[in-house]
Specification:
Blueprint (H helix, E strand, L loop, with lengths): L2 H14 L3 H30 L10 H23 L10 H20 L7 H15 L15 H36 L12 H29 L9 H24 L4 H28 L2
Helix pairs in contact: 2-3, 2-5, 3-4, 4-5, 4-6, 6-7, 6-9, 7-8, 8-9
């Protein structure tokens, strides 16, 4: 039996165990979770934008309360999406993007408890909230992992997703560094009063970038060691793009610590690397699950 036929058989087996009312109730629950999380993300985003340049700054209690509620509901939603059965995980594209959005939102929310993140939170919360609503209108697919590869493949995927989330956060930090630098050069001090100091953000940027690059290297290493099909016809482009992204991230770190690179050059290279990594992780999945389905 081919892999596609096997997955189709698994999907049909799942559907036979679920009645129409169960499906309807499940869909209604997911929709409710999406709407509640979206509203909470929206409240937090509005609370930041409405007082971003206010002398007293945004209301952190409203932001953190709404953000934590949104992340909690988002977590429940992702759990229901991923675990369609107790022993199987559905790694379709919608679920993976929802998981990535959750991990980034959770990480930035935790960071905001200690550091000022008024520029990062609206971007992260805005994307997560809008995605949760849009996901309700995207036709669902299913992507179950083969049992004989499941443990190592899941480990590889988890490390890769963690690396991706960290590196996307680093990209957001690069934008924040560029924004603060621009405002300081134009002597618009009021625009950065409620933002962290430039040197602190730069230090955090390269620390996060180093951690993310190391995690990406580990994900590539585990792939080469434990997976046999990295350079198969369907995975070769993903592997090549991931390696290209890794090399660009390494070049950024080398350039910073050896040549003193920072500012606009780091931002451009980080965007290029993040684009390559996004294309590697999600480009082929989008084509296969939606354009060719």
């Amino acid at each position: 039996m081919s892999l596609g036929a096997e997955r189709g058989y698994q999907y049909n087996s799942i559907l036979k165990l679920i009645t129409f009312k169960d499906v309807e109730r499940f869909v209604d629950l997911l929709t409710a979770y999406s709407i509640i999380a979206f509203i909470a993300y929206l409240i937090a985003t509005f609370a930041i934008f409405s007082r971003l340049f206010h002398p007293q700054g945004p209301n952190q209690l409203v932001i953190m309360s709404s953000g934590c509620i949104a992340v909690f509901i988002h977590t429940l939603l992702v759990h229901h999406l991923l675990f369609i059965q107790s022993n199987e995980i559905d790694f379709n594209l919608i679920n993976v993007v929802s998981l990535v959005a959750l991990l980034i939102s959770l990480t930035v929310t935790v960071m905001a408890l200690k550091y000022k993140a008024n520029l990062l939170l609206p971007v992260v919360y805005g994307f997560s909230g809008v995605w949760l609503i849009l996901a309700n209108f995207i036709p669902p697919t299913i992507h179950l992992l083969p049992d004989n590869e499941q443990i190592m493949l899941i480990a590889h995927i988890i490390i890769a997703l963690i690396a991706y989330c960290i590196l996307i956060i680093a990209t957001l930090y690069a934008f924040q560094v560029s924004f603060i630098t621009h405002k300081l050069k134009s002597k618009n001090i009021s625009a950065v009063n409620h933002l962290p100091p430039l040197m602190q953000v730069q230090h955090q940027l390269f620390l996060i970038l180093a951690i993310g690059t190391f995690a990406l290297f580990i994900s590539q290493l585990t792939g080469f060691i434990f997976l046999d099909n990295l350079f198969s016809k369907e995975n070769a482009h993903k592997t090549v793009l991931s390696i290209m992204a890794l090399l660009v991230y390494c070049a950024i770190l080398w350039g910073h610590y050896k040549k003193g690179w920072r500012g606009h050059r780091v931002l451009i290279l980080t965007i290029i690397a993040s684009f390559l990594l996004t294309l590697a992780y999600f480009g082929s999945r989008f084509v296969k699950e939606f354009l060719l389905s």
